[in-house]
From TrEMBL:
Catalysis performed (reactions): a tRNA with a 3' CCA end + 2 CTP + ATP = a tRNA with a 3' CCACCA end + 3 diphosphate; a tRNA precursor + 2 CTP + ATP = a tRNA with a 3' CCA end + 3 diphosphate
UniProt name for this protein: CCA-adding enzyme
Pfam families registered for this protein in UniProt: PolyA_pol, PolyA_pol_RNAbd, tRNA_NucTran2_2
Swiss-Prot/TrEMBL GO biological process terms: RNA repair; tRNA 3'-terminal CCA addition
Coiled coil: none
Organism: Lentilactobacillus kisonensis DSM 19906 = JCM 15041
Residues annotated as domain tRNA nucleotidyltransferase/poly(A) polymerase RNA and SrmB- binding: 178-237
Positions with a binding annotation for ATP: 36, 39, 120, 163, 166, 169, 172
């Protein structure tokens, strides 16, 4: 029986792209929505990127539209800017010769939708939706969706051999969608887990964070341990017992900083260990800084040793991160720290009611290294509420600080 999705019910992202499908079809080619956006629409989940697949070759696609950009022309992808914010249209293709377990040596453009769907990773990701809302399901993706199953398209061993990242993706989808991994697919992951080492850390990183911020992340982590995948990720090899403890707990994480901070907390990492661990995952420096601050708060909050200065130094975002993490893993509420943060006399050095320039102008200090020291002292004193944040109080505090220092 044909499944038809009513176009009146699809997200606006699809509606905006309909003229693209219509234009391609009018020219005599086929065009479909494919991949994650179709899956997520059928699951009533919000969609992000809308992918379109077509039987038209890239040069043919470009002839049909006024404004196009070659975003990935060698893989058959052209971005069309004529409608809405920009849509990627990719020519049906087959892939072959995965010599390095990650990228096909050869992509071939083809005219057949079936061939294109066959190269996709999982049955629920191999659905196509036409302009009229009709779903093409050649591998039982709809039944798997109903049964909440992640199943490789074709032979799992072959598919993971071609591209080892698919193993991470399987577990990531299981976590995000709260699905089970089908038995043979799971065995395939176990059997090929060591191939993950062939994959660029950046790509494993992306999938790991998506898995950890998924709905059923404890299960995702459990699967990573059960399949031995974790053994082939940076810095996790000797962490089985801590990972097991995490799997037994309940946590809900909503961003990357929270993911790494929770791990660092369970691993009892020092700042230096956090930095080393996250560098091995090729994590951005800004994230590393935030994880260090958030993790320090986790240790302090659980030991009930938080000073105003700790909250101030961490900043609003990291205080929020730490409280959010602890509220999910602990029966107690840590939300009072949010109020404490809001009550801080200042949240930024710029809010000090005096500047170095004013101190110089008032003849209290000369431009010198001492000036920086004084301002640091005032910042800390105001945050800890030992000095009021008004001009006179700050001048007085400066004078006594200088005298004390002499
Ligand atoms: P997300 O919600 O994260 O975007 P997605 O399923 O859309 O999930 P993408 O990486 O955006 O994932 O890929 C789009 C589609 O391309 C997938 O749904 C799948 O059909 C196919 N695909 C992506 N990566 C692979 C892969 N490594 N092997 C096979 N097919 C893949
Ligand atoms: Mg996508």
């Amino acid at each position: 029986m044909a499944i038809i999705v009513k176009m009146g019910k699809v997200p606006t992202e699809f509606k905006e792209a309909l003229p693209i499908l219509q234009r391609i079809e009018k020219a005599g080619y086929e065009a479909y929505f494919v991949g994650g956006s179709v899956r997520d629409t059928l699951l009533n989940r919000p969609i992000h990127d809308v992918d379109i697949a077509t039987s038209a070759y890239p040069s043919e696609v470009k002839e049909l539209f006024k404004r196009t950009v070659d975003t990935g022309i060698e893989h058959g992808t052209v971005m069309i800017l004529d409608h809405g914010t920009g849509y990627e249209v990719t020519t049906f293709r087959t892939e072959s010769g995965y010599q390095d377990y990650r990228r096909p040596d050869k992509v071939k453009f083809v005219r057949s939708l079936k061939e294109d769907l066959k190269r996709r990773d999982f049955t629920i990701n191999a659905l196509a939706m036409s302009e009229s809302g009709q779903i093409t399901d050649l591998f039982g993706g709809l039944a798997d969706m109903k049964a909440k199953i992640i199943r490789a398209v074709g032979d799992p061993d072959e598919r993971f051999n071609e591209d080892a990242l698919r193993m991470m993706r399987a577990i990531r989808f299981a976590s995000q969608l709260d699905f089970q991994i089908e038995a043979k697919t799971l065995v395939g992951i176990k059997r090929h887990s060591q191939l993950l080492e062939k994959i660029a850390v950046e790509r494993t990183h992306t999938e790991f964070v998506k898995m950890m911020t998924g709905r059923d992340a404890e299960n995702g982590l459990d699967l990573m341990v059960a399949t031995d995948l974790y053994q082939h990720m940076p810095g996790l090899t000797s962490r089985q017992s801590q990972l097991q403890r995490m799997i037994q707990s309940h946590f809900k994480l909503i961003n990357e900083v929270q993911v790494w901070s929770l791990l660092a907390f369970y691993f009892n990492f020092s700042s230096q260990e956090i930095s080393q661990f996250l560098k091995s995952w090729k994590t951005a420096n800004k994230i590393i800084d935030d994880v260090i601050l958030t993790t320090e708060l986790l240790f302090r909050m659980t030991a009930d040793q938080v000073a105003n200065w700790d909250l101030y130094r961490a900043g609003r975002q990291n205080v929020t991160n730490a409280v959010a993490i602890l509220n999910t893993i602990s029966p107690a509420s840590f939300s009072a720290y949010l109020t404490d943060y809001q009550k801080l006399p200042i949240t930024d050095k710029k809010q000090l009611k005096i500047t170095g320039g004013q101190l110089i102008k008032a003849g209290i200090l000369k431009p010198s290294p001492e000036l920086g020291k004084v301002l640091n002292y005032l910042e800390k004193a105001v945050v800890q509420a030992t000095v009021r944040n008004d001009e006179q109080a700050l001048i007085n505090a400066t004078t006594s600080f200088i005298n004390e220092d002499d």
